[in-house]
Specification:
alpha+beta; 6-stranded mixed sheet; 23% strand; elongated; single chain
């Protein structure tokens, strides 16, 4: 009779929805092992949250590890669902609680980027576009069509070759009668361009220029830049020394610009989170960050994982920013609408 009563009580408890007893006889949620297991998962969750919260403290002395981490920082958020699955499989209350930390850190850093901050298209005063057209891309007509279809007033192209310049020049001439080309970068405009000159970013050849566009709302200084590429090497880490020095020189040129309204268009080979681009990013606003929808990843075009192409402003406000369709390059074109301050 005693055995039957015990069985009946256990069955009644399960049927009523109460937690079934664990090995210790207590409900599983009160079983101490639920909290003791999964400590490795909890430790990994803590590590991910620390990296996201204190990424600026990761040193660059060894292989530019800090900059490498910051380049792909948003993707650390993928660790949260992976660790959540591990916590559920382990039935670990400790791991589940620990996962609150990386989830909060990611939302704090990037939650704002998931919101659409753009105003309605057409509400700006000036539309700009930047595109690394890829030196190996010879489908000039396709790129020209994408650029013209964007409706941009001013267009910046990078990775121009000697063969590409006349092709783009001829294709864009009807829509953009004013042109400035220095080295491998160029600017096409619906408005007259003046004071065009190369910008020395310490490479020994020209990959940056400055030109003033005479817009109906007043002069705007345009910078077009293609900073040196970076590489990830097993023996050297994240090699970015030349890019970092170029960013310093570009930042010095922009900070001394006499025109109050400045727009930077280009392939900076770095994200807004990368501390090494601070000479530029500290004095300008990202159009995507201020008025974009989502992360706006631009590279590689086949499966974009980061935004190394940038539209940045000073003295003029972004009102919308977006990524255009693939034009045949390994980078996606970017566009933004800007508004002059009254």
């Amino acid at each position: 009779m005693a055995q039957a009563s015990t069985t009946e009580a256990a069955t009644d408890g399960h049927a009523s929805g109460l937690p079934s007893p664990g090995p210790s006889g207590r409900p599983r949620w009160r079983d101490g092992r639920t909290w003791r297991r999964g400590r490795v998962v909890a430790a990994l969750a803590l590590l991910v949250s620390l990296v996201m919260a204190f990424h600026s403290g990761i040193p660059n002395d060894i292989g530019n590890l800090g900059s490498l981490t910051e380049t792909f920082l948003p993707w650390l958020g993928l660790a949260v669902p992976i660790l959540l699955l591990a916590a559920l499989l382990r039935r670990s209350a400790t791991a589940l609680v620990a996962l609150v930390l990386p989830a909060y850190a990611w939302v704090h850093l990037f939650g704002g980027l998931t919101l659409d901050k753009a105003e309605a298209r057409g509400s700006g005063d000036l539309t700009v576009l930047t595109h690394n057209v890829d030196a190996a891309n010879t489908d000039y007509d396709r790129t020209v069509r994408e650029v013209i279809a964007s409706g941009a007033d001013v267009v910046a192209l990078q990775e121009l070759t000697e063969a590409a310049v006349p092709e783009y020049g001829n294709g864009l001439a009807a829509s953009y009668p004013y042109r400035a080309v220095e080295g491998t970068v160029g600017l096409w405009s619906k408005y007259p361009l003046d004071d065009t000159d190369e910008v020395d970013i310490g490479l020994g050849w020209t990959r940056a220029l400055r030109s003033t566009a005479a817009t109906p709302e007043g002069p705007v200084a345009f910078y077009v830049a293609h900073l040196p590429s970076v590489r990830v090497k097993v023996d050297a880490g994240f090699t970015a020394d030349r890019r970092d020095r170029s960013a310093e020189l570009l930042g010095e040129a922009i900070v001394d610009d006499p025109v109050g309204q400045v727009v930077l268009l280009g392939d900076l080979n770095g994200t807004m989170n990368d501390r090494s681009l601070a000479p530029v990013t500290s004095q300008m606003r990202s159009a995507q960050g201020a008025a974009g929808d989502g992360f706006g990843f631009s590279w590689p075009s086949s499966f974009p994982v980061t935004r190394i192409d940038q539209i940045m402003t000073k003295g003029i406000d972004p009102v919308s920013s977006w990524v255009l369709e693939d034009s045949g390059s390994d980078h996606l074109p970017l566009a933004a609408e800007l508004r002059f301050r009254q």
